[in-house]
Design brief:
globular, mainly alpha, 3-stranded mixed β-sheet, homodimer, 498 residues
Chain lengths: 498, 498
């Protein structure tokens, strides 16, 4: 290999090793770390972030990237793309002073702790000082990156390359109107019967075993991944392709939500586990953007995981497992399950929302975030702003802060500007699902028989294997021959619910 | 605070944060990491060790420590001891080149993987090349530290300050004779009935819950610690006092061994959790030596955990838990339990050995290690050497390599010279037990009623709280007014078994 490339990849490898270590520190904090370890962990994360920042912005690395970037025409396509992505990341991070990175990391870690307590105690004042600091540091962050651009656009671009808040506002404005109409038409009037799984004895250990069976059936490779129990479900990759962790929440004792949450994270995990091995050493050995990532999790969660075929296959598996545990025959009613998991109605909690109202939760957060970043925003008004948006767009007002403004982990982690990618993912999921089901007209009977290979192969070939090799826009165009638009998603929802 | 002290403690804190991160990488490798993450983890550990080595041997830190060391007379006792311990560690580590540290760490990580496979497949040849490298690197290590001293003495001194192989050989030579006699006298002749817990349905999740109850009753603080499931039990501290992890093996499906193993690690954990908060920032915020540490784990495992009073309290707890699980009344026979856990007989597996024969396993390993480090030692002869020692000292010959030379994790981690500290710990446990029970003559009835406060307070006050403030020898002298000797242990064993 070319000497410059060799140097670049050896430095990049160090950054990836340190990045993976930081992810482990975070993952452990969520899954196993005892309560009193928080302060130490927060110091650890700050120090490791500082070390990584120093290494990934030092002269040696800057020189390695710039040298290759200047001769990118001579590089083969894989090396060229790797250098391009590195250059983009580098240009962002050399703008951040090391002290800022350390401070930001430390505040986020403490904010996360405050958020957990605040949510538990339904008390915004516990989280308020941390959130206030997070907002301030976020603006400072955006200013460091590009003081001439709107804060929100800088943040968005981190998650979804090239996306502008202007575009998002346009897409969401149309979606808001379409959804309002659809929600009014298809909302359930009778009260939700959430008892479809009432006959099984809910127990974290047993539910975990069933969920593991489901993950294996769909295609998760436990040689390259594991699971974790967390407060709020998420997927994290500790080593590209080889160490992918799907984390689930069993705490709300609701079997259906546990499963749909797990299947959602599985969608992320399958993407990360199935990137082509030839990209492992590169800077793009992961899903290409949050939106595309979310399209994979939402498609698996909704289009597949909430379909009748899916449950027709898994219900007997679940029945058998739980019957064995209690030595009594347990029988589940598939109609009740379908009613429960596809029950449409405005509600407070985003992650428990049905797939019709879900995007309204995102639009609310997007609009709240735009306000939050405005100069002179009074943070004391945040809970009221949140509630008024729910009133306006979903016609309901949260009955507690924990079920309102305190429900999501994102802001405590500094992830402002992240929410819109959820809806962008839903929109893309609609388009990919349309294409997949037109390529495989017998998809439904395959799933009904527990055969997920068609799904697995199609998405592996078209999406997962590419990692970040193509830019998001190009990846979409390659597969669909068109840009992103919300038509397919609306058609899918109308077909299913009207 | 004095400027030099402030500098020293701020650098020391970084080292401790990085050390804790390395411990987490290792802990995760043992508990949760998927199989294919091994190579990446090995690279991560190597890189992190290199970073820590660089930081803990750079000019800034060397200057900080030496400046304070030179004016140690002016320091208060806590700062003075912290500087003394740091100086000792520093003198050792500046002798190791960074490349050696990285290589050594990498080899150990790969060796560990090879050992797991070798043990599983009962095939020494899988582990042999790694072990050979470990032996070579160990000798190299000792040469870097002090080329003029016997390799084994350099290694021993790492674990037990000031201890010489000459002393160990002397102690072990006497112990070997005493034990041979005692084993012949008290060995059970009838076959072991290992079925005392046969009526409970062994299930990892359920056993774990019972063990957690036991740990809580004895005094483990889950706000400052957690548990993990591992192949080979161990305790690890990720953050002094505040994040202590007791790891247990449930794999052999043997309830009695699961519990005694857990209680053993709990002994280590209680020591680490109960060090005085005022020492948290120092270089000695941990147990003072491996021998003293082991005295705490062995005392809790054997003197308490294998006593009738202990089981008289816990048997009803266990019965109730498992009866509830299966809706049938389960009844355990305490005589059968006592016979099972105190069954004395020469056997192959050290960690399952009874407390009488246990030290013979250590003496064997000590003698094997002395051979292993001799120039010209032929590693192909290691399994045969191992077996012949078992024949000579315990009168039995291992029936497989997994139950023989491949049984322990230690060598795969580079820990040669570590084994003797187990027996030094047993000897000290005998002395501390004699003192504790003469201070509290009603100890037996307290334990029988599930009240561990006497035990907890005595050991917290006399041993745990001090961390590494006193040198091992001084700590022992402070408590006992005498040096270490094996009389108390032999008296305890004779009283219990003859």
């Amino acid at each position: 290999m070319d000497k410059d490339l060799k140097k670049y990849y050896s430095l990049l490898k160090e950054h990836k090793l340190l990045g993976g270590t930081i992810s482990l520190l975070q993952w452990d904090q969520e899954t196993k770390m005892p309560h009193k370890g928080t302060e130490n962990r927060s110091d650890q994360l700050a120090l490791m972030s500082k070390i990584l920042h120093e290494k990934s912005t030092n002269k040696e690395y800057v020189k390695a990237v710039n040298t290759l970037f200047d001769k990118q025409e001579d590089l083969d396509p894989i090396d060229r793309r790797s250098v391009e992505v590195s250059k983009r990341e580098l240009d962002r991070s050399i703008k951040l002073p090391a002290e800022f990175v350390e401070e930001y990391s430390k505040i986020r870690s403490l904010a996360h702790k405050a958020w957990v307590t605040a949510k538990k105690e339904n008390d915004f004042s516990i989280f308020k000082p941390s959130l206030s600091k997070i907002i301030g540091l976020t603006k400072q962050y955006a200013d460091y990156i590009d003081a001439g651009t709107e804060t929100y656009d800088v943040l968005l671009d981190d998650y979804e390359e090239g996306m502008k808040s202007e575009d998002v506002t346009e897409i969401f404005s149309k979606l808001k109107i379409d959804l309002k109409e659809l929600i009014e038409e298809v909302s359930n009037q009778e009260e939700k019967d959430a008892n479809a799984f009432g006959s099984i004895e809910y127990d974290d250990d047993n539910v975990e075993r069933v969920v593991i069976k489901m993950l294996e059936t769909i295609g998760f490779d436990f040689d390259k991944g594991t699971i974790g129990r967390v407060h709020h479900p998420f997927e994290t990759t500790l080593a590209a392709i080889d160490d992918v962790r799907v984390n689930m929440s069993y705490y709300h004792k609701d079997f259906a939500s546990t499963v749909t949450g797990a299947i959602h994270e599985l969608g992320h995990g399958l993407y990360e586990q199935n990137i082509d091995e030839k990209y492992k050493h590169t800077s793009f050995s992961h899903g290409v953007s949050l939106g595309v990532h979310e399209s994979q999790s939402r498609l698996l969660e909704n289009m597949i995981g909430r379909s009748r075929a899916f449950w027709e296959y898994f219900v007997p598996v679940i029945e058998e497992y739980f019957s064995d545990r209690v030595n009594t025959s347990i029988s589940l009613d598939i109609d009740k399950i379908m009613n429960q998991i596809n029950y449409v109605s405005p509600s407070f909690i985003r992650i428990e929302a049905d797939e019709v109202t879900y995007n309204m939760h995102i639009i609310i957060r997007y609009e709240v975030e735009l306000e939050m970043l405005k100069p002179g925003f009074n943070i004391d008004e945040l809970p009221e702003l949140w509630n008024s948006k729910y009133k306006e767009l979903l016609g309901i007002e949260p009955n507690s802060l924990s079920a309102g403004v305190l429900q999501d982990v994102h802001w405590s982690m500094g992830s402002i500007g992240y929410f819109p990618t959820y809806s962008l993912g839903n929109i893309l999921a609609g388009q990919l699902w349309e294409k997949f089901t037109s390529d495989h007209k017998d998809y439904d009977s395959k799933i009904r028989s527990g055969d997920f290979s068609q799904y697995f192969e199609w998405f592996k070939t078209n999406v997962w294997a590419h990692g970040g090799f193509y830019k998001p826009k190009d990846l979409v165009k390659n597969i669909l021959g068109t840009d992103m638009n919300s038509e397919s998603l609306l058609n899918y929802l109308k077909k299913k619910y009207i």
